[in-house]
Amino acid sequence: MHGGSILDLEFALEVAVLVLLASMLSRELGVSIAIVEILLGMAGGNLLDLEPTSWMLFLASFASIVLTFLAGVEVDVGILRSKFKESVAIGGISFLLPFLGAWLFTYWVLDWTSDASKIAGVALSTTSLAVVYAVLVETGLTNTTTGKVIMAATFVTDFGTAAALSILFISPTLWLIPFVVVSALLIVGLPLLQPWFFGRYGNRVTEPEIKWVFVALFLLMYLGDKAESHAVLPAFLLGLAMSTSFAKYRTEQQRLRVVAFALLTPFFFLKAGMSISFSSLTANAGLIGVLFGVKVAAKIAGVYPFARRYLGQDAWYTTLLMSTGLTFGTISTTYGLNAGIIDQDQFSILLTVVILTAVVPTLIAQRFCQPPLAGIAVAPSVQDQELMAEGGD
């Protein structure tokens, strides 16, 4: 590991080059930048012997909470209300069955510890908001019934993942009370104050509206750490609560997204990649394939019947998109590694499966199951195109 200010600057330069290279490759290859950053992190860690410094670990930890908040902000509350029954049915089973399948398989068949198996269940239960949103915008399905149901169901799945990660690994302390109380106050109070705050302090080069969001997230992280819990669930709920207000302030939302994806999230995904061992992947290639099959099989068994009932001929397309995973899967596995719940090999295995689920089901869905409705919806906006290019959750 690098030590000292000179070597830290050398490490910072190497990371900056990887971040820039990831942006360029993502553009050229048309692949989510998160996947490219993870792969370059793997290359840096295994070929260049790069190891995360303390400042990178801190930024990566904060980035995971910012990503979770942004996932909540992307929720369209109107879609959730109009497609409540369909979204809860598809999204709920999309979380529950893969969670139980991966948990029980790793515990009973692979003989992982109880907590490690729970991390596996959480990590492989996810659906990638980034992948789903980008694909739906690209194909013109965002304004169709199929697209709206898939987006709403994705929100439900991600909520289940965030809730499971927070609830399963709570070690109750007296700090849990102020953590819950402050979280509730922020979730209720910030959306009420947001119009006044943005109106009073918004549209300035110093970006106070971004800073107050960061203060709230740092507070959640601090209290979550004191409570020996995790800030994922309250951060997601805070983003959800503020989504309606942010929809009225698209410029501020875009600026927050730019800050996150330009400065913070590269450290999270690069750090995750640096933690993956090539030797572990080689030794466990068969197991990676099996766990990939467990997740996809569970998604198909759970999602397809409901998708067939509510969406008819678009059932396979819906099922495959709901089988994707990326950011929340990465957050879950990283949390497990940092907390000592899973070891390096288990982390490498799970994160590789997460990456595969971001790519393989998407390619199959677009190549073989594209709904005939594609192309009749309105063209994507500039903002949507920018989000597609970033591919962030």
Topology, pairings included?
Blueprint: H1 5-29, H2 33-47, H3 54-73, H4 77-82, H5 84-109, H6 114-123, H7 129-139, H8 145-168, H9 176-201, H10 208-226, H11 232-248, H12 250-274, H13 278-283, H14 285-311, H15 315-322, H16 327-338, H17 344-368, H18 382-390
Helix pairs in contact: 1-2, 2-12, 3-10, 3-11, 3-12, 5-6, 5-8, 5-14, 6-8, 6-16, 7-8, 7-18, 8-11, 9-10, 9-11, 14-15, 14-17, 15-17, 16-17
Largest sheet: none
Estimated share of beta-strand residues: under 5%
Radius of gyration: 20 Å
Give me the number of helical elements.
18
Structural class: mainly alpha
- Overall geometric form: globular
Please bin the fraction of helical residues: over 70%
What number is the mean pLDDT? 86
The CATH topology annotation reads as Na+/H+ antiporter like fold
Intertermini distance: 30 Å
SSE pattern, N- to C-terminal: HHHHHHHHHHHHHHHHHH
CATH architecture: Up-down Bundle
Provide the domain count: 1
- Identify the quaternary structure here: single chain
Highest CATH level, the class: Mainly Alpha
Low-confidence residue ranges? 374-393
Quantity of strands, as a count: 0
Please tell me about this protein's structure.
By secondary structure, the chain is an all-alpha fold. It has a single domain, classed as Up-down Bundle (Na+/H+ antiporter like fold). Helix content is 79%, strand content 0%. The chain is built from 18 helices and no strands. The chain has helices spanning 5-29, 33-47, 54-73, 77-82, 84-109, 114-123, 129-139, 145-168, 176-201, 208-226, 232-248, 250-274, 278-283, 285-311, 315-322, 327-338, 344-368, 382-390. Helix 9 (176-201) packs parallel to helix 11 (232-248) and helix 15 runs antiparallel to helix 17 (344-368). The longest helix is centred in the last third of the chain and has 27 residues, at 285-311. The protein starts with a helix and ends with a helix. 51% of the residues are buried. Residues 374-393 have low confidence and may be disordered.
